[in-house]
């Protein structure tokens, strides 16, 4: 009887001095008891002392948060562009959406037609005029370069006799026809710029992906790398909250918040504010993409001139359709009817042959590329757009399924937080596991960063490398008196 009373007194004393709450192992802290309640109401001094007493365990929390930040952002960027085709079980998939019940397709490949249409509208309505571009070509010079191909086509399709008969008039007819073709009503009818650009993107989804990755390379890199910094800062708050409220839900909930917020902040900083915002007259704040308008304009012009609106694509569309095409109809309107149909067909075939075999006609392709000046025309006019209009170049990539990318970060953060809870990482005890977690999470974060740098080694060089001053404006905050050359 005396022994039972003594044991009861010892339990009461233990409960009063709080030794139980301080020495309880990590899993016990989640039991419904007065221990959890007392921990949840700790004063700032007490929870700060807990962190001081177990620095390694608690340090693992911001380290894991930083890893979650960079990992979720990296995955979000990859999900924007890959896989190019739907991967998984094609069952219960919603139309024009990247996800299915058991699969995924990159946002850009899924929305290729929608995004390409927006780009086509900008290019055709605000950046490029066909009659202006083709008006730079010298009809006499171009006819001189086309003459051998036209003669070969007439000889092949119509015979040597027709070539001999037409030989005296070809040097007159060809410049005349090219001059007429340069007129706005003719070039707009024969060459459909909307179709040229749209088909280039829709025919090969990788072209649109390459465009967004090239012009948005700095923004995408910022999106990934900023996840580490934002995750680390938010992880410090997560650590303090865990020390003050060591409940079962704390780490998973905070992890979900870190993953969600890091993605949200990074995407917002890319495009907002669109217009520069003055801060105390000392510096300006502007979205990263808009602040790089000069550099991005050069990148866009260079890509479009080389991959989309190159001489091969333009000449191919010009000769599209053969005898049923617009070029044949144009030639029929311009040339007298005594000239037989097969001569006109041979002329159209000559244009198609020149387009398909650029290596056999390097002088002509180089001349057209230089005189059309697509690169500088697009870049120069893109630089004059307002920041809000300019934002439409890249923002559609994120707008289409922005909430999906942000929510993905939250889900992955929730999983990481739950893993910390179950394994005892970040709480009292488990110092060895916490140290392994710190090393592993930092090493994994470094691996994401190094992998990104490794991929850059195989990327094509940026057009602005030849103009280093363009690269200075790679910042969200800049001094008020900065001047940018164009």
The level of helicity is: over 70%
Give the low-confidence spans: 1-41, 461-475, 482-486
User: Strand count, sense and closure of the main sheet?
Assistant: 3 strands, antiparallel
Measured between the Cα atoms of the first and last residue, the distance is: 94 Å
The largest sheet has its strands arranged as 3-4-5
Individual helix count: 27
Quantity of strands, as a count: 5
Q: Whole-number radius of gyration?
A: 33 Å
Mean pLDDT: 77
Shape: elongated
- Structural class computed from helices and strand pairing: mainly alpha
Strand content: under 5%
Question: Any overview of this molecule?
Answer:
The longest helix has 28 residues, at 217-244. 70% of the residues lie in helices and 5% in strands. A 3-stranded antiparallel beta sheet has the order 3-4-5, with no helix packed on it. Strands 1-2 form a two-stranded antiparallel sheet. The model is unreliable at 1-41, 461-475 and 482-486 (pLDDT under 50). It has 27 helices and 5 strands. Helix 9 (139-158) crosses helix 21.
